[in-house]
Structure formats: structure tokens, C-alpha cells
Amino acid sequence: MKLKGSKLFSILFIKCPQCHEGKFLERKVYDLSAFTKVRKSCPVCKMNYHMEPSFYYGSMYVAYALGVGLMVGIILLNLLFSSEFSFLRTFWMICVALISLAPLLNAWAKIIWANFFFHFKTEWKSKSK
Ligand SMILES: [Zn+2]
Predict the structure, then answer these.
(1) Which of 16, 44, 92, 108 ranks highest by number of CB atoms within 10 Å?
(2) Domain boundaries, the chain
(3) How far is the CA of 45 from the centre of ligand 1 (A)?
């Protein structure tokens, strides 16, 4: 399966939605000094990542969906693999997972949001010259 060129590649590796080569974030995901700050433009294909002011506010909807998905996943795992369902244990597992994965979920929310609007292009190299 060829992953590069698909939106999944851009999302999993948090790369530019257009060229799949340039970095999308200013710093690494767990570098909390610039909490999932998106670059102004792609360092490789020069695509502007901010098509309008406050563009990434919309990624909050995606972050919410990812958070709910994680919560449902943890509940299902608890129902499947534990002999007795404990509400309190499940609650704390969800809290720990959401807090420890918050930067990653936030970064994925932003790159998924960007992938709604920007698409992979192979012709960006010829245009940029
Ligand atoms: Zn790019």
C-alpha cells in the first residue's frame, strides 16, 4: 500500500497537506513551548498554511471528535477485557489518556482540519520554479 500521496500520510506524519514533505508544525508535537503551533507556510512547497485569520479554530471540532473517539475506545476496551466494569477506573483511564495524548490529539486535529481544505498535488514542484 502506497501511503505517500494519501491524506493518511499527511495526517499520521503531520506533514504538509500539499507536498507531504514539509513540516506542518513549528516544533515537535510534545515540545510544549509552542503548543502545536502551525507554521506560516510550508518550508518545501511554500504553500500558505493559514488561508484566513483564525483558520485553525475549526480544528476544535476535530479535536472534540478525536477525544470522544478515544473515550469510546477506552470504554469498549474496558468492557471487553475486564471481568467487572468499573466506572471510576474507566474515568481515570480516560483522564490519563486525554491529558497525556493532548498535544498529539491537538496536532492531529489541526492537520486533519488542514487536509479538509488542502489537497496533495504532485505538480507543486513545477509551479514553484
Ligand atoms: Zn508543502
Answers:
(1) 16
(2) 7-128
(3) 4
- The beta-carbon contacts of 18-24 under 8 Å, at least 24 apart in sequence, are 18/42, 18/45, 18/47, 18/118, 18/119, 18/120, 18/121, 18/124, 19/44, 19/45, 19/47, 19/120, 19/121, 19/124, 20/120, 21/45, 22/47, 24/49, 24/110, 24/111, 24/114
Q: Which residues of the chain carry a pLDDT beneath 70?
A: 1, 126-129
pTM: 0.88
Ligand 1 mean position to 26 CA, how many Å? 14
